[in-house]
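User: Quick sanity check before I run a bigger batch. Here is a single chain. Can you write out its predicted 3D structure?
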Amino acid sequence: MSTLTHTLQHWWRARQSAQRMPVERLLSQRSLKSLFQPIVELRNGEVYGHEALIRPPRSTGETTVSSLFEAAREQRCEPSLELGCVDQAVEHWLAEYTRGSLFVNISAHTLVYQYEQQTEDCVLEILRKHRFSPRRFGIDIGGYTRGVDIAKLVESLQRMRAVGVRIALDDFKASRQALEVLSRVRPDLVKLAGRWTRHVDEDEDVSKVIRSLVRLTHGNGCMIVAKSVESESQLMAMQELGVAMAQGYFLGSPAAEPITSLNRRAQSVLADLN
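Assistant: Done. Predicted structure follows.
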């Protein structure tokens, strides 16, 4: 398939998604669905917090969040979508669960580039509106290696961090750009890209990289989170490497209601490890 053909197909799919999903209307009708996946401390099996995962409503005929964001890009309203997702996630969270910490996804691009109002002001206003303590709130930052002005990113995060918001770097890879962001942002959490988890129980080179990242992040005062943990062997490998937390289907699937304790199988594995 030629590059031109691939580009045209991608454009056509995005156009179709945009027609099926008028994003601003979905936001005004507050019809996005929020699911919550637990983040678990490996030393004691306790639930540290949950990540909010947004899904489009079934009425659109779409099932993936990527199609939702393709439609937002086509309609040039990605920042509105991201902030709308934050607003609805907090609202759904408080309706289901009054305790614990909530993490939401915001791209570095949205944090850095100012629109009608600075993104951090919008986020803090959402928290005030819902009377949700910033100390129970965190943001998972994605896309921070894609040509983002790191100085502006740090500046954007300072105000939120000053009131207690926790910062996580999502889908972390051991690249030069990612390591630079790590050293300058100094996040509370570093969430490993899922590909590291997939091979951790069978590839010694992957284990060496993760062990090095654990040492590096510990020196910076932040903790590693292993994403996409889907098996007992992956969980055991991450714990042995010194990873502090984990998230994935083995520990808990995304669900409309947050959990307060792990399933019995995960509890048993962690009890044996500790």
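The first strand starts at residue 33 and ends at 41.

User: Great, the batch can go ahead then.
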